[in-house]
Structure to design on (261 residues):
């Protein structure tokens, strides 16, 4: 009987020890599952990326607010047979045209539309497009972002037509958002200096037309170098601290909803 009692006590002790060991193991597994930093960080990063990606969020906002997007201009394209005819109209109507813009407009390869059509145009700042205040961004990056937001780049003709048709532009010095801006096109190479450029539309009454006393300008601006290694690719500043980037504003085409359907 004594032996049986001793065996019974030993067995009970072994069962207690086994139970404690199993309980401790389960507790460690639960703690590791909850606090594993790799799993937690991966899930958090994934959720943050899905919720805060500025391109995705901005694209969704633009799509949801299509009916609320208001065009700054409606421009008619295809009214002239070539760029030289556009240049003649600009000079006859007392607009100022920079020498580089004259070179582009009078180049035999300046593209124009064969038939008339109207397009809606909006002017947006780089900050409105989701770029950070201290970012420096290239033209290619700006165009890629605009396309993700649902907009289209302009044609070179649109810049000249916009200058010709936008006669009540405020002077840039007033700070009005439409006083000066770039026309977002793919950079064009129609210039004697070999540098690709895009147009800008500016009113600067410090340099007026002698017959009107106002300065409604079509200007060509260097973007990237096509010949001289000494010229670096131009980077645009969304905050535009020195006013060299025209307020960091660019004109884009709003796609016609009916055309997309």
């Amino acid at each position: 009987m004594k032996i049986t009692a001793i065996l019974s006590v030993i067995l009970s002790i072994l069962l207690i020890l086994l139970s404690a060991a199993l309980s401790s193991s389960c507790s460690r597994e639960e703690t590791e599952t909850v606090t594993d930093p790799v799993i937690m960080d991966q899930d958090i990063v994934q959720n943050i990326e899905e919720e805060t990606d500025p391109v995705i969020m901005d694209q969704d906002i633009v799509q949801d607010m299509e009916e609320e997007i208001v065009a700054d201009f409606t421009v008619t394209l295809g009214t002239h047979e070539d760029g030289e005819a556009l240049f003649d109209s600009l000079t006859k109507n007392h607009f100022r045209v920079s020498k580089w813009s004259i070179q582009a407009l009078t180049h035999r390869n300046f593209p124009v539309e064969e038939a008339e059509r109207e397009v809606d145009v909006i002017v947006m700042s780089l900050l409105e497009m989701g770029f950070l205040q201290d970012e420096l961004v290239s033209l290619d990056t700006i165009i890629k972002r605009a396309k993700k937001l649902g907009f289209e780049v302009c044609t070179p003709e649109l810049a000249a037509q916009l200058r010709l048709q936008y006669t009540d532009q405020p002077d840039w010095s007033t700070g009005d958002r439409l006083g000066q801006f770039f026309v977002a096109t793919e950079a064009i190479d129609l210039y004697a200096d070999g540098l690709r450029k895009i147009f800008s539309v500016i009113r600067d009454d410090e340099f007026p037309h002698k017959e009107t006393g106002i300065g409604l300008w079509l200007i060509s601006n260097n973007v990237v170098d096509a010949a001289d290694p000494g010229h670096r690719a131009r980077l645009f500043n969304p905050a535009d601290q020195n006013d060299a980037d025209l307020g960091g504003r660019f004109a884009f085409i709003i796609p016609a909803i009916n055309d997309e359907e």
